[in-house]
């Protein structure tokens, strides 16, 4: 792959991850109740010395290990998703870039904006074609290994995450229910506006690059052997 083609992809990847993190912080600061995964992250943060972003990274790394164990392929964007969304969350919160929702109307508007930003960020970073996030990977892995629908698997995972996060002290409110029921719509809306069709994306995974490197090294070795002959 040529450098000229790589740099725009890298830029799009990290812009997408930043916007995704911006969406997460916007839904958190809406003060309206958190999304299931953020309830878990907050619960972990409350019970440890970790920041919200660091808790997100730790959960992501655990999910990455599970994905790998279950045989799901890992992309470079998967790694970037785990590390940089957490970093961006902490940066955005430390800079106080997003206000705190002070009324029901403001909270609702912020939740809507946050969900749209999640969709926009997803369209940008997934569209790079270097893999998706580890949470989506878990959903795919369990769907493949059961006879259940994607909807049931995803709902079961998020319900389990929500319960664990709540027991750890994470914030659950009316916004949690509203976002759980409507986040898919706003993500789909963002995809539509961006004319992004996730089914048309062909991903490139880390194992492919490893094979390319091994082949390149073997070719170099063969050239040296021939040169000596």
From TrEMBL:
<keyword id="KW-1133">Transmembrane helix</keyword>
<feature type="transmembrane region" description="Helical">
    <location>
        <begin position="77"/>
        <end position="98"/>
    </location>
</feature>
<keyword id="KW-0472">Membrane</keyword>
<protein>
    <submittedName>
        <fullName>Uncharacterized membrane protein YczE</fullName>
    </submittedName>
</protein>
<feature type="transmembrane region" description="Helical">
    <location>
        <begin position="12"/>
        <end position="32"/>
    </location>
</feature>
<dbReference type="InterPro" id="IPR038750">
    <property type="entry name" value="YczE/YyaS-like"/>
</dbReference>
<keyword id="KW-0812">Transmembrane</keyword>
<feature type="transmembrane region" description="Helical">
    <location>
        <begin position="104"/>
        <end position="128"/>
    </location>
</feature>
<dbReference type="Pfam" id="PF19700">
    <property type="entry name" value="DUF6198"/>
</dbReference>
<feature type="transmembrane region" description="Helical">
    <location>
        <begin position="52"/>
        <end position="70"/>
    </location>
</feature>
């Amino acid at each position: 792959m040529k450098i000229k083609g790589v740099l725009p992809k890298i830029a799009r990847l990290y812009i997408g991850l930043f916007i995704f993190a911006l969406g997460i912080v916007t839904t958190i600061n809406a003060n309206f109740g958190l999304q299931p995964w953020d309830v878990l992250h907050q619960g972990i943060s409350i019970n440890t010395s970790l920041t919200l972003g660091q808790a997100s990274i730790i959960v992501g790394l655990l999910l990455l290990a599970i994905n790998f164990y279950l045989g799901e392929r890992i992309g470079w964007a998967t790694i970037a998703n785990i590390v940089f969304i957490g970093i961006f969350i902490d940066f955005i919160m430390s800079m106080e870039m997003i206000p705190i929702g002070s009324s029901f109307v403001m909270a609702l508007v912020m939740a809507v904006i946050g969900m749209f930003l999640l969709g926009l960020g997803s369209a940008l970073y997934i569209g790079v074609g270097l893999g998706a996030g580890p949470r989506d990977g878990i959903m795919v892995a369990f769907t493949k290994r059961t006879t259940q629908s994607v909807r049931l698997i995803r709902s079961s995972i998020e319900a389990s995450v929500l319960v664990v996060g709540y027991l750890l002290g994470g914030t659950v409110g009316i916004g949690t229910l509203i976002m759980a029921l409507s986040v898919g719509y706003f993500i789909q809306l963002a995809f539509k506006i961006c004319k992004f069709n996730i089914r048309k994306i062909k991903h490139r995974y880390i194992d492919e690059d490893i094979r390319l490197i091994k082949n390149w090294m073997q070719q170099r070795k063969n050239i040296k052997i021939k040169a000596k002959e």
